[in-house]
Design goal:
The chain is built from 18 helices and 11 strands. By secondary structure, the protein is α/β, with parallel strands linked by helices. The chain folds into 2 domains: 105 residues, no CATH class; 299 residues, Rossmann fold (3-Layer(aba) Sandwich). The strands form 2 sheets. The chain has a 7-stranded mixed sheet with strand order 7-6-5-8-9-11-10, sandwiched between helices. A 4-stranded mixed sheet has the order 2-1-3-4.
């Protein structure tokens, strides 16, 4: 049985992509604009040993399997096709496939590509969510290369969900190049010139700022601050004294240089440190944008308790994070592609779980918002940036890592579009007695 016949046995004869293999066989739609090509027998080893998304990822990341055309289109078509037709293999089909592939393929283990964070490597780092292990898994993902992130994220250097309006959210604007948004003499002065992504990232920081009610002279703590986007926005646009903390030294070094270049050193600072080491009781506002995913379900209560302790009475917390669509779903799949290749130890909870933990820590919840569609659009822009700068990206991080990013971002677009994951902003207040220090109706 040649590989194309095995492909047809698994997914059916009408797959909406072209399939070709090193043995010269082919299947699927010969006119399709996307094609899957099995380049070497090692790809078969990976797929035989892990006949699922992990096996496909290993084969693709290692270069033994290639995909021609748009990654998102390929994933969407195959997802639609498999969901519609299912995989119906008889016992005879399975026996035939094993005989054709050869039992050696199933038992002769091939090491995963180096981009995979195996369970053994993770176990060697100590207990999950200990300070040392958190620092190492953050290093694994965020210290790839600042130059690489600039290619993918664009001038804003913001690796969290943007907020689009109808104009910036048009699909025909995905991938357009644009300069970084220009500073304004007025806080919250509306849409900035630049590409759709840069404009949408500015709008996100504005939304966070308005929910927090930032005012000149306030003290802001941004936990998990990335490259300092929120810190610089708060200082530049609102005159806020802002401190950001990150476990990534490369992020902190990059942010310090950008803060100095923008002349914001008197107001803005980014430190390489764990949020747990920030002193308590001295901040008017806290933003947590894309950090809760790294905290862990069992650590949510102490996490929000620690943020509550860092706020003055009347202070506000804006928590922005990826969530599951329901609270009864498992927060982590340790055998899945995302935890192995992208976010080791990453855990996603439902919005109700996050909100309950905030409540139990003492916060009064004042607003909650789901930005699911906005993250799908954000990821489309990042994926387009990567494709446009592919050769340079490969030269910076290697083809294997670039392939991880191409696959993961396209897959996450699909995940957000199909409500597999969501993005929630939840605003909480540490009451001053019984006073929330909020207007009767919000201004955001």
């Amino acid at each position: 049985m040649r590989l194309a016949e095995i492909f047809e046995r698994v997914v059916g004869p009408d797959a909406p992509i072209r399939f070709t293999a090193y043995d010269g066989s082919s299947a699927g739609d010969p006119g399709s604009d996307v094609a899957l090509h099995v380049r070497t027998p090692v790809a078969v080893n990976y797929l035989a040993q892990s006949p699922n998304a992990v096996g496909l990822t290993r084969a693709y990341v290692s270069g033994h399997l290639d995909l021609e055309g748009d990654m998102y289109t390929a994933l969407r078509r195959m997802s639609d096709f498999v969901l519609a037709t299912g995989v119906n293999l008889s016992l005879g089909d399975l026996v035939g496939i094993v005989r054709s592939v050869g039992w050696v393929k199933f038992v002769n283990r091939v090491a995963p590509p180096p981009q995979e964070m195996t369970r053994g490597r993770l176990a060697s780092l100590g207990w999950r969510h200990s300070k040392s292990r958190d620092a190492e898994v953050i290093h694994h993902h965020y210290d790839v290369s600042n130059d690489f992130y600039e290619l993918v994220l664009g001038p804003s250097m913001t690796y969290t969900c943007a907020v689009f309006d109808d104009e910036d959210g048009a699909l025909d604007r995905v991938g357009e190049e644009g300069a970084a948004p220009k500073a304004s003499s007025e806080a919250g002065a509306g849409r900035r010139r630049g590409g759709a992504l840069e404009s949408a990232q500015f709008r996100k920081y504005e939304l966070v700022s308005r929910k927090l009610g930032l005012e000149r002279g306030m003290r802001l703590l941004d936990v998990g601050c990335g490259w300092g986007g929120m810190v610089m926005h708060a200082a530049r646009e609102y005159g806020v004294k802002a401190l950001g903390v990150t476990l990534s030294k490369e992020q902190a070094d990059w942010a310090a240089k950008r803060i100095a270049q923008e002349g914001l050193s008197e107001l803005a600072e980014v430190r390489h440190m764990d949020y747990r080491d920030v002193p308590d009781g001295s901040y008017d506002r806290i933003s947590s944008i894309g950090l809760t995913e790294h905290i862990g379900a069992r650590n949510l209560d102490p996490y929000f308790a620690s943020l509550y302790a860092k706020l003055v009475p009347g202070g506000r917390l804006l928590n922005h994070c990826i969530t599951r669509p329901r609270n009864d779903l498992k927060p982590m799949d340790t055998k899945g592609v995302i935890n192995r290749y992208v976010f080791p130890d990453g855990e996603l909870e439902g919005p109700g779980t996050i909100q309950t933990a905030m409540n139990d820590a003492g916060f009064e919840i004042r607003h909650q918002e789901n930005l699911r569609e906005h993250y799908a659009l954000t990821l489309r822009h990042w994926g387009a940036n990567l494709d446009r700068n592919w050769d340079e990206a490969v030269s910076l991080v290697g083809e294997g890592t670039a392939r991880v990013w191409r696959l993961y971002m396209a897959g996450c677009v699909l995940g957000f579009e199909r409500n597999v994951v969501q993005l929630h902003q939840i605003l909480g207040v540490r009451l001053d007695g019984t006073d929330a220090h909020l207007p009767l109706r919000p201004a955001f």
